[in-house]
Amino acid sequence: MPAKILLVDDDIDTLRLVGLLLQKQGYQVVAASNGHQALSMAQSEKPDLVLLDIMMPEIDGYEVCRRLRANSSTSSLPIIMFTAKSSVDDKVTGFEVGADDYLTKPTQPRELVAHIKAVLTRGGKVRLTATPPPGERGHVVGILAAKGGLGASILATNLGVIIQTQARKDVILAEYRPGVGSVSLDLGFTRPEGLNRLLQRRAADITSEDVKKELVEHSTGLRLLMSSYLPQDAHLMTAVDQFEAITNHLAYQADYLLLDLGPGLPPHTDKILGMCDGLIVVVEPVPNTLLRTKALIDILETRGFTDGKLKLALISRVRTEMQLSIHEVREQLGHDLTATFTPAPELTYQSAKFNVPVVLQEPDSLTTQQFKKLSEALLKHVLQKV
Predict the structure, then answer these.
(1) For residue range 55-82, what is the model confidence (pLDDT) as tens digits?
(2) What is the spatial distance between Cα 151 and Cα 268, in angstroms, rounded to a whole number?
(3) CATH of 4-122, one of 3.40.190.10, 3.30.70.100, 3.40.50.2300, 3.30.200.20
(4) Where are the beta strands (DSSP E) in the chain?
(5) Count of CB atoms situated within 10 Å of the CB of 386
(6) Computed over its alpha carbons, how large is the radius of gyration of the chain?
């Protein structure tokens, strides 16, 4: 979530102009036009920072600051005095009553934003300002399954390559499976340490630039944030806040963010669901797996993933006579299938052996056409939303 700023000023034009500026930078803004409102909203809105004017009727900014510092629930709230009072005495008074920073009007927008970021960071309260602006947020699609070993990572990788190369969209694939990653090995990257480094940091310290530096670019242009395959790194799955922070940043760095979420609903996946615009659930046409998949779908529907937001991809890996039919799968799940993938064990093996995605290993294969169909369905849904 973006940081929330309480903007306090008795000048309506200032409230409007500065509020719009901060919103464009990705902040959530709430406004108060006098000191009494400011004190009340500091309690009710629980902002991450107060941008406080001094010259206001009844209760001036100095007194507001004193009262915020005297209240245990707001005593540590970051406060920036933002005022036309520019004398040294005014500034000294501002710091004496408890301001964290003092900025005089008028000021350049870049300077104001820089001061806000600095104070939030010093206070350990930064909650990921969105750069570029919120209107440029990419489409976030999660890919998951009821259990492991169904091919979710292979699907995520090939779908990402298709969207990147065929649809000419900028795509990031993030594999959120520390300790059990497979994307790196499938693509020939032997030291996937980027996600590990991010997960070992404090969530509040992770910046957009930090995340960007850990992305690895594939020859197709697809950018990757890959998980470690070393079992000892599985403990990093508990870094729920870090996963949320990373996702917030990644969402603003590409047209499409594909999240390989792996099996089930561990805490970090459960947290990230609310950040996804859509989900793809990988389905295996086997009775026991379908029972587990139906249970997963039921939960996802309660979270709002219905209609076009939830897509099912059936992946068959054995002969037809050894599994349920497509009709039986649809009946058991109560859903249509967006895409079906027929068995292609030799192609999948060759793809892994030579570290080349299936859709590039054999561009004219039936499997590649099936990936194109899934890609088209996903892109079509996004266009309909727009």
Answers:
(1) 998 899 999 999 998 887 888 899 999 9
(2) 20
(3) 3.40.50.2300
(4) 4-8, 28-32, 49-52, 79-83, 101-104, 139-145, 171-175, 216-217, 223-225, 256-263, 278-283, 310-315, 339-341
(5) 6
(6) 25
Stated pTM of the model = 0.66
Instruction: Answer for the pair 246, 271: CB distance below 8 angstroms, yes or no.
Output: no
Q: Of the candidates 149, 162, 381, which has an alpha carbon nearest to the alpha carbon of residue 276?
A: 381
The residue-averaged pLDDT of 296-307 equals 89
Partners of 28 in the β-ladder:
4
At a CB cut-off of 8 Å and minimum separation 6, what does 207 contact? Answer: 249
Q: If you write DSSP's letter for every residue of 127-168 in order, what string do you get? A: ----SS-GGG--EEEEEEESSSSSSHHHHHHHHHHHHHHTS-
The listed range with the strongest mean pLDDT (75-89, 105-119, 129-143, 251-265) is 251-265
CA dihedral 245, 176, 152, 223 (to 10 degrees): 70
pLDDT tens-digit series, residues 355-378: 999 999 999 999 999 999 999 988
Report strand pairing: 216-217 vs 223-225: antiparallel
DSSP per residue, 306-349: -GGGEEEEEE--S-GGGS--HHHHHHHHTS--SEEE---HHHHH
Amino acid sitting at position 146: A
At residue 10, the 3 state secondary structure works out as coil
What's the CATH superfamily of 137-385? P-loop containing nucleotide triphosphate hydrolases (3.40.50.300)
Q: Do 137-385 and 4-122 have the same topology in CATH? A: yes
**Per the structure block, which two tokens stand in for 16?**
């409007």
Q: How many CA atoms lie within 13 A of 330 on its CB side?
A: 8
d(CA 2, CA 27): 5
CB 374 within 8 A of CB 338: yes
What are the sequence ranges of the domains in the chain? 4-122, 137-385
Token duo for residue 32: 């108060």
Here the tokens at position 166 are: 């065929």
Closest CA to 4 of 42, 39, 37: 42
Which helix (H) or strand (E) covers residue 114, if one does?
helix 109-122
